[in-house]
Amino acid sequence: MPGDLREGRIVIIGASLAGLRAAETLREEGFTGPLTMVGDEPHPPYDRPPLSKQVLLGKASASATELPTRRDPEAQWRLGVRATGLDPVGKRVLLADGDSLPYDRLLIATGTRARPWPNPEEAALDGVFTLRTSDDADGLAERLAAGPRRVLVIGAGFTGSEIASACRERGIEVTVAERGPAPLVGALGGTLAKLAAGLQRAHGVDLRCGVTVTALHGNGRFTGADLSDGSHIDADVCVVAMGAVRNTEWLADSGLAAGARGVACDAGCRAFNMYGIVTDDIFVAGDAARFPHPLFEYQMLSLEHWGNAVAQAEVAAHNMVNPGPLRRPHLAVPVFWSSQFGLNIKSVGVPTFSDQVVIAQGSLDERRLVMVYGYRGRVTAAVTVNMAKWLEYYERLIETAAPFPPAPGAADRATAAAVPVPSDVPDPKVLSHGPTVALTGYLPDRRLTMVRPV
């Protein structure tokens, strides 16, 4: 590696939000060497949150979601080509077109892809969609604009719930099938999930919880699905919203600590190898990263959040071009948001890292409230429903490990004494979608075979 970290060759694998923000930060921090951006999609970096909102509502085209750039990253772009392997000894990235890219430092920002329907023949039926890319959104928006009789959504996480909301706003009949007990339960726990269930039904959603879809039917074109309770749904469109798969398979033979939960790294975004030894030339950021956070007992977090992708990319880029004493940790408190069925839901912290919740402000009946989450007597998260202005207040409570339940004092706090109740966070195995925050503990993704010299 060159002595001056502002020189040398840097390759970024992943040309989406985290990759773009990292590239911009590298230049802002004075990096002058050659920079290469590799992305498996042919499109320049674009914003994904509008795909399940404005694009499905017909208020914007997917092509209008291109991310604005803070500055020209002065990069060589290799779009429409996948990375297929990594040689960390020879310091080369292998590409699907047969080429290879040498690097001095590497940033892995490969993100996630939509989890496909497990039966390939059924998944290939015309009218069966996933929603992750701009091409996905274009195709689905076109089908919704044609006015289908009914849409079946499999999975009631944030993406599935936002798709259902868009369908109802368009006046389309929609059935949502969720393996868990309620929508959003994997992200927000049981109390707010009950509010989400009531809200969906009040807006005319045919919500089926505690069931799985056992088969999709059609003769070339999707016509309906069977459910585990013996019922059948006739529909013209099916959207599989069963969570995301982290794009780490290309690293299987790399020797890195990469698996289904992401690429493990330290708080400075430096990737670990499979023996838990930190690398000094390979970094990771965004949805593909799995990192420890001191506010959550150093558990490894995997996040699928816009804000985390930006913050972690900036930390990774800073650390790639600064020596050890000047490096900084990624300690941002996770924040995410969702708009559905007329509600603005915003979260700070990790709601799944909790054992109790309390309604600190507002009420479920008003559909305007702040739910605060606690773990072992301290505040770990807060979720606001149509009360986003309070998010910063509760973020400070999380950062200072304030006691739970929080003391009275907020201006429009509910007058009745709030009593904490169990947060009722389910085992992810009972969900048909993945949680947007995964607490992955200390365990590696696979057992290691220790080879000792004879």
TrEMBL record:
Entry keyword annotation includes Chaperone: no
Domain Reductase C-terminal: 336-413
UniProt keyword list: FAD, Flavoprotein, Oxidoreductase
Co-factor requirement: FAD
InterPro entries referenced in this protein's UniProt entry, alphabetically: FAD-oxidoreductase/Apoptosis (IPR050446), FAD/NAD-bd_sf (IPR036188), FAD/NAD-binding_dom (IPR023753), FAD/NAD-linked_Rdtase_dimer_sf (IPR016156), Reductase_C (IPR028202)
Residues annotated as domain FAD/NAD(P)-binding: 9-313
Pfam families named among the record's database cross-references: Pyr_redox_2, Reductase_C
Protein name as annotated: FAD-dependent oxidoreductase
Organism phylogeny: Bacteria, Bacillati, Actinomycetota, Actinomycetes, Kitasatosporales
